[in-house]
Structures are given as C-alpha cells and as structure tokens.
Specification:
Largest sheet: 8 strands, parallel, barrel
Number of domains: 1
Structural class: alpha/beta
GO molecular function: monooxygenase activity; oxidoreductase activity, acting on paired donors, with incorporation or reduction of molecular oxygen
Pfam families: Bac_luciferase (PF00296)
Keywords: Flavoprotein, FMN, Monooxygenase, Oxidoreductase
Organism: Pseudomonas alkylphenolica
CATH topology: TIM Barrel
CATH superfamily: Luciferase-like domain
Mean pLDDT: 95
Number of strands: 12
Order of helices and strands: HEHEHEHEHHEEEHEHEEEHEH
InterPro entries: Diverse_substr_monoxygenases, Luciferase-like_dom, Luciferase-like_sf, Luciferase-type_oxidoreductase
Length: 348
C-alpha cells in the first residue's frame, strides 16, 4: 500500500458506523463485531487469454449463494496491462454483478475494488445505485485509487493526482446518493438543478476503502465505512499479529469509536491433505494449505479484528467444484454468514 498522503479540501460527507447500515442486507450478512464471515473472489479460474475458463462461473456463484457463503467479490480492471498480468474476471464489475444478482438471492455482491480515481462519480453512483436496487440492497463497495499506472493516461488523468481525485470522488458520490437533491460544488463537477436516480434501497451503500488509497489514517478513520487491507504474511501467526496492530490503529481513528468492519483476502491453493501446512507460494502471493491450516488462519484473523475474509481460488490446482464443496462443508460452519434483513424486492 502506498503511504503517500495529501491535504485536500474538507469533504461535505462522512463515513458511517454499523448503525447506519442496520437495514442493509449485504452489510448485515457480512459484518458484525467479533465475527468473521467468508466470501469468494472471482474469477474462479485464472484468465490467461481464453474466455472458456469463465464458462459456467455464474452457475458456480449461484451454488456458492445456495451453500451459504456471505459474499461474492469481483475486481475492477478497466484495461488489461500485460506487464501486470492479471485481468481479474474480465467483465465490467457492475454489469457482471447485475448478471450475478439475477442468479442469486442472498449473497452480498462486492466490488474489490471499484476504481474511484478513474471513473466519474456520476457514472459510479448511477451504476452502483442501479445494482443496489436490482439486487435488493446486496451491494457492498470496496473502493480504491487504482494500482495500474497505465490506465491513468488512457483516461486523460494524472497518476500522481489519484489520491486527491479519489477523496473528491468519494465525497461527490455520497452527495449524489443523498435522499434530497444536492447542491454539489466539487472540482469534479457542479450540480444544482438535477438529481441522480435511483437511490439506494436502504439509503446508503457501504464504501470500504482499500489500503491507504493515498489518504491519511485520520481520513480513513473519518471517511471509510470499512477498511480492506492486504493480510500481511499468512503462513504463521506473525502476520495476523501485525495485522491486528494495523486494525487497532485504524479503529482508534474512528470518531466516537463505533464499530466499522475490517476485511482482508488471500489467494489459496487448497490441498487434498487437510493437515497440509500453511506454505507460501509465488513469493507469498498464494498460500497452499489444508483446510485445518486455513481454519487456523481464519481464526487468527478473527482474533486480530478481521470481520470478513475473501478467498480467491483462481490459482488452485484442484477442481473448482471440489474446493467450494470442501470449504462449504468443513470451513464455512466455523465462519457462517450472519442473520440479518432479507434482501428487498428483486423482481424488476
């Protein structure tokens, strides 16, 4: 995570504690104090140029929903950079989540993470509010500045200014989604005689900030509805201990000390042997482990203050269906999705 910070114009809006999302089906399925839930990151198989690896993925997500996982996550990768080498799930995140919303009923739908520094907040808000309505309030948004420098000149934007633009976009986005028409005066645009429709079905869409996103810890404490960070090392207890220190520092910066959730993720290669030791692969990018080591890691994360873990299996060697079934039968019972309000109307 880039630690560079900037001083920006004071925002009009603020982040919110859990009480503001008491009626939000997606948020409540994923988050509660002292609890950890599980999500699955897409794609389920790594895309290396052949779209055939994505065939049937929506049906597998429908099964993930039926089995009781808390969330399905998608990436936001506008342009494929061969030097970066990862196209995510290829499809646009909002379009694809709308497609998945029609084939699922309970699972939270999560962006990990929407690039607020590249997309204009009107377009972001229109897509997000539409998806939130179509899914009955299941959208949770991870948001970020973007980590692929090649995309910024393609949009006509300066990569060095992504942090400032990110903070401005978050504020503009929230004003657009406010219940009453907003008089918006932002470096990104001015609005006084129109409003954005539709509105979120429960009044707000959670914005989970990824890493520092070029902001200070004070900004993250005040503005982030939740925080998504890299997990640190996952093959032993030292990584979760360092992660716990980071989470405590962020929560100390939250005004009033109310609960806001923390999330992390890991790419796993789930071994056949349930006792296979936690072993870092590809320079620590992938963790090979048996299910018992994974259960231990998730418990360590929960103790550290993590409230949701997104697991990616795109690098795994075993068949997708086999991994998902083992996770559902052996791991998910320890970290179940949470009870909360049912999704609202989805019969559009």
């Amino acid at each position: 995570m880039n630690a560079t910070t900037h001083r920006f114009t004071a925002p009009v809006t603020r982040g919110a504690n859990a009480s503001a999302f008491a009626g939000h089906p997606g948020y409540r399925r994923m988050f509660a104090p002292d609890q950890l839930t599980l999500g699955i990151f897409l794609p389920l198989r790594f895309f290396s140029g052949d779209m055939a690896v994505l065939i049937g993925q929506a049906q597998q997500v429908s099964e993930i929903d039926r089995l009781g996982f808390a969330a399905a996550w998608v990436r936001d990768v506008p342009l494929f950079d061969p030097a970066f080498g990862d196209a995510g799930q290829v499809f646009d995140p909002f379009t694809y989540l709308a497609y998945l919303a029609a084939q699922t009923r309970q699972i939270a739908l999560v962006t990990g993470s929407a690039i607020f520094s590249l997309r204009h907040p009107i377009d972001l808000a229109k897509s997000a509010a539409t998806l939130d309505c179509l899914s009955g309030g299941r959208l949770v948004m991870g948001i970020a500045t973007g980590d692929r420098a090649v995309e910024f000149p393609a949009y006509g934007l300066a990569h060095a200014e992504r942090g400032e633009r990110f903070a401005q976009s978050v504020d503009y986005f929230r004003q657009l989604l406010a219940a009453s028409p907003a008089n918006i005066q932002s470096p990104l645009g001015r609005l006084s005689e129109a409003q954005l429709l539709p509105k979120p079905v429960t009044g707000r869409i959670p914005l989970i900030v990824t890493g520092s996103s070029q902001q200070s810890m004070a900004w993250l404490g005040e503005q982030a509805d939740g925080w998504l960070t890299f997990p640190d090392a996952t093959h032993n207890i030292l990584g979760p201990r360092r992660l716990a220190e980071k989470i405590r520092a962020w929560r100390a910066a939250i005004p009033g000390g109310g609960f806001r959730p923390h999330m992390t993720n890991e790419w796993i290669d789930l071994a056949d042997d349930p006792n296979f030791p936690r072993t870092p692969l590809q320079g620590g990018y992938v963790l090979k482990t048996g299910r018992n080591g994974l259960i231990d890691l998730l418990g360590e994360w929960r103790d550290a203050g993590v409230n949701h873990a997104a697991l990616g299996i795109q690098m795994a060697q075993r068949p997708v269906a086999q991994i998902i079934q083992e996770l559902a039968e052996e791991v998910l019972p320890h970290f179940p999705a949470l009870a909360g309000p049912e999704p609202l109307m989805q019969q559009w």
